[in-house]
Structures are given as C-alpha cells and as structure tokens.
C-alpha cells in the first residue's frame, strides 16, 4: 500500500485543520493521538480587552455553525452578572433563533454524513433544504450566518406578523421534506448497513469520558441542558429528550433526526405563543463584580461559559468550552479497534465543529514503527471501495 | 496555439483549492454552499479539487494562525503556476475580530500574495461567485 | 434534592475541608477546598452526588494566586469546586484517576498558565503551536502580546 504526503485540505464539505496520528496494525487502529491547535486563535485573551458589547460579536465568531450558541451563552451570563431581567418577547425571539440554528446545523450535518457514507445526492438535498432555514434567518436578522440578534438585555430586531407566518410556512415545508428523508433510511439498507456498528462507545465509557450532546445521547445518556438547567423559555415548552441505545454512528444519526423533529415542534410553539411587549431592556455599561457560569445546549452538546467580572466594562476572565472539545476523549476511544477506512465517518459522526477532521492522518505501523501519512480523501475512497464487499450487517434496523 | 488553448481552458474552467487557515468555518460553509444547487458555481466550470497540484485558484479563508503559517506557504509553493489567490471573508483580509490575538498573524496577504479580496463576515455565496467570475474576467 | 439540601449534605460530608460553600444562584453551588483535598472532594462528588460529568476546568489569574475551578454537572444542579495555588509554587494534583475525561482540560491549564498538574497522564501541549517559546504563558495577566509590524502589500507599511 502506498501513501501520499498530504498537504492541503481535501474535501469540499467544510473541514478545519486537525491532525490525527494513529497507530495501526494492518487495517485496525490500535491507538489514536489528536493534534489540536491549528485553529487556536486566542479568543480568551482578546476578550479581556473588549467591552461587554464588543464581546458579543467576538464570541459569535468562535464558530460559524453554532455562532448564536456562543453569543447567547455569553449574553445569558452577562445578564446574570448585571442582574437584568430581559422581557419575555425578547427571550422568545432569541430562543426561536436558537432552534432555527439547531435545525440548520443538523441538516448541514446530515448532508456531511451522507457525503461521508457515499450518498452524495442526500448531501445536495439536505443543503438545498438548509437554504430555507437560511432565508428565514436572513429575514429575521439580516444575515445568513452570524446573526448578531443578541444584545445585552434582549434582542435587536422584532418579528412582525408577516415574518411569523413565513416561519410557520417554512417549518411546515421542512417537516414534510424531513419526513421524506427519514423514510429514505428505511428504504436504503446499504446506507444503514454502512453506518451501523461503526464507532462504538458504550454507556459507561460515555459517562466516564464526559461525552456530551448527540454523541452521549446515542449511547443512552439522556442529559440535555434544556431539561436539567432550563434557561429562559425552555421550561415553558413541551419537548422530549431524544436518545438511542445503539451506541454507534447509526444511533447518532437517529438522535439528530429526532432532534430535528422536536425542534420543529418547539418553533411552532414559540411562534404561536409569542408574548407581546418590549424586545430588550436597558443594560448598564459596567457589570458588578462577580462570577457566573452559563450553560447552553448547542447542536453539538453542552456549551459552557465562565465569566468573571471586576466591576469594569471589560471581563476579567472569559472561559469558553465548546462541546466538540469535550467529545475528544470519547472520539479517541471510539476510533480504537476500528478500521482505517472508517475514520472519516466516525469523525464526521461526532459533528466536529471547532476542530474538524481534516488534513492528514498519520499512520504509525505498530509492528515496525514506520510512519506514513494518508489523506482523508484516500481513506474515503478506500472505504467506498470496501463497502460493497464488506459483510452487510443485515440485521441493522432503521428505527424511524 | 497551445498557449491560447490552455489560457482559454483556465478561464473557462478553473479548478479550485479550498484552504482553511484557522477560520470559524462560516466562510467555509458559504464556499461549500456555493456548490449546492441554489448558487451552483459548477455551472461556471469551477470544480473543487482536493490537491494543490491540480488547482488554478486557491480560495483561502480565515486568519492565519501560527501553526498554519508554514503549511500555507508550502501549499502555495506546491500549486503550479500560474496561480491566483482569492481571500474570502474579513478574516482573510485583515484578521477581522481576531486582530491583536497572540496566535494570529493577520490576513492571508501577510503570508502569500493575494489577487482578489471578497469582503463579508461571512461573505455571501453570491459574492464569492462574483469574485471568482471577476477574477476570471481579468485573466 | 434541592440546592439547600445538597449544601447541607456537603457541609456534613466535608466538614472542615470545605473552606467556603456558597449557593449564589439557582443550580449553582460553589465549593472551595485546599489543593491537597481536591481529589478526595472530586471522588466524593462523583460517587455520592452524581457528578460524574465534568464540564471543564477554568484557570483564573487572581493577582497573587491562581484559582482553578472544576465545573461539574449533575442532573439536578451544578457544583463548581475551586482551589487556589500560590504563584511561586503552582502545583495541583491531577483528578484524572477519578475523572478520566479531565486530561485535555488539565493540559490546557498547564500550557496557558504554567501550572504543574502532578500525575497528569499526558503532559504535552494541547493548543499552542509547536514553535511557541517555552516558559511563555499567554493567559497570565502580566503577559501582553506585542503585535509584529504588518506589511501592506503594494503600499507603505
């Protein structure tokens, strides 16, 4: 087998630089080491020099897919420090955008998962549907990504009747389309067989390694910040926490698909019950000294911000832990014992955000220590070649 | 004669390499969204390639982190001439909100020469397509 | 159990080891212990208070000491364990024996603040680049980044 030197990103669906070093024996992975840092921008240090409002825009740009999660988590914490009580209408609009973001993120991920499993037309369909959500977000906030709808004390733009009707219409279309895709799974046994049994993470391992979000939910750990630590409007909404117990990539797909359906329900409730009133309350320039911890359920898991204030208009310390970092120890565990060809799929299944699977994978042969670097596209090609000949897990069942 | 043919094929069908040098991913999703049926940049003959050896145009996004600096230079050197670089997004132009961070060098033009800047945070897919087309017009 | 019950129960279990125990907001309990009692407190929280989930570890440069916060979440509340180490001897024991998922966070506070986590299974750098000079800790308050001169292509610098 000959490997190529990688230098360069490869595949069209967004990826960010990260490098994996795997110890292999034949085709099976025995050890994994992840090298982070390609994407480290020093945001925590920059945040200490910007004031509270400027920091909303900084935290938004920590990630492009879940930008609203970081901005909202930050603003929630600052509002607690400043002891503000934002009006209900503002909160409803803010979390409406949160659920729309969850939908766009899961649709994006479904497309990427389809692409990794060799199902490119699925990728095109889901990204086309994602455009409906992007249009709604643009209508509400003015931008497709980085909505900047938050301000300290509420939101910046209001929703009128016409926009509310459009949102309900868009969600109805999406729901019909999503239900069609979910039935595809039942009719495409090769897709299901490709992803079943891959990337196993048992429930005990998920708990010990502090996995979060759909990765943990697919292993039966049903923890969701919206239920355990309900912030703002989530204790008034009716929704369920989705779990699966197959502990593999199929479980993660199923959990995200069920979360999509729950989000549609929540958006309809929020739009129908939107209370009247102001959308923001006035916020002071400086925050009282103190500290606060703010948690939020981002599409990828639990997002936590720790903010410490010293009474001035700039934070003393801002600490951000994005959900994908929390899932790395679990990812290392999942990759152990798997085939090299499954690496792109498993890595995509954790829905990596801040650091994505990318660039190169370094393979260290356990028998003689020889190192070789392989590109992800090469791995994907080998996986797709191997799939028709691999034994199908014929008893894998699409549970939806 | 051969020169004219190669020049025509380069204009009519530039192959693109997408380079992410430490960005937040927003510009990258918009670049990929440019491939999807709604904006469909493939109708211009643009194809996304995986390796720098095949690329005519490098589309770069993100502020340059220290870790990525040498790799970007290496990729640029591996791409055969003539090559063009498009810097997409405010981060690639100047560093956007991260200016002054300890791990950031600044925009892409601090590391490799850039031919076209597409502003926006993130740059809309229409703007990216517009940038590519304008660059082709200058060739 | 409500927050008040948990606070009472922690007082009973830890006794004098709990240097400070506050409940400033709903579902936020802050507990301060000395570095030597850290692993014992964490094991107690994991076994008796259903806090097996560690959200993250935060380091704070508080002037003359470093404060390290361990954020745990249980299904009914969140408990944040704080410990302080002096700047001239910044050593803290590793909690990886009790919580295996803590290793990445401990690597991060080591490289960002210059803390020494004793017994850490993997002491390498996590996020700083390979050519970052040793001994320079970015998140300390007394370190300021000096921006290099920017080159404006085609114009004056």
Outline the structure in words.
The complex is a heterotrimer of chains A (400), B (139) and C (157). By secondary structure, chain A is α+β, with helices and mostly antiparallel strands. Chain A folds into two domains: 19-39 and 326-389, no CATH class; 43-197 and 271-321, Cytochrome-c3 Hydrogenase, chain B, CATH 1.10.645. Chain A is 46% helix and 14% strand. Chain A has 15 helices and nine strands. The two termini of chain A are 40 Å apart. With 139 residues, chain B is α/β, with parallel strands linked by helices. Chain B has five helices and five strands, in the order αβαββαβαβα. A five-stranded parallel β-sheet of chain B has the order 2-1-3-4-5. In chain B, helix 2 (26-33) links the parallel strand 1 and strand 2 (47-49). The mean pLDDT of chain B is 81. Chain C has a single domain (3-118), classed as 2-Layer Sandwich (Beta Polymerase, domain 2). Chain C has helices spanning 3-14, 38-48, 103-113; strands at residues 20-25, 28-32, 53-61, 65-73, 78-86, 91-93, 116-118. In chain C, strand 1 and strand 2 (28-32) form a beta hairpin. In chain C, strands 1-2-5-4-3 form a five-stranded mixed β-sheet, with helices on one face. In chain C, strands 6-7 form a two-stranded parallel ribbon. Chain C contains three helices and seven strands; from the N terminus they run αββαββββαβ. The chains are: A alpha+beta (400), B alpha/beta (139), C alpha/beta (157). The interface between A and B is large, with 43 and 44 residues.
